[in-house]
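FORM 7B: Structural annotation worksheet

SECTION A. Query
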Amino acid sequence: MDEKIDARENAQSDNLINAVLRDAPKTKMLIHVGHSHVAEKSVPKRKGGTRDWMAALLKSKTGIDPLTVSQTAC
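SECTION B. Predicted structure
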């Protein structure tokens, strides 16, 4: 399951980079996500180690510091 989640998060960030940022790196985007996908830093996994979710991967792959707003704990 961990491999599938990691592959999905990488694919999501790569798709955004390839579809939008590669040709127009200064483009501003609004990306609506749920739950952990908004995490800008590595998050601990239940069985040890950490995971980078989509926002963290976009940040590390592009150098863009995203503005993220989490409403999951409201």
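SECTION C. Observations
The chain has a mean pLDDT of 91. The first strand starts at residue 43 and ends at 44.

SECTION D. Sign-off
Analyst initials: ____
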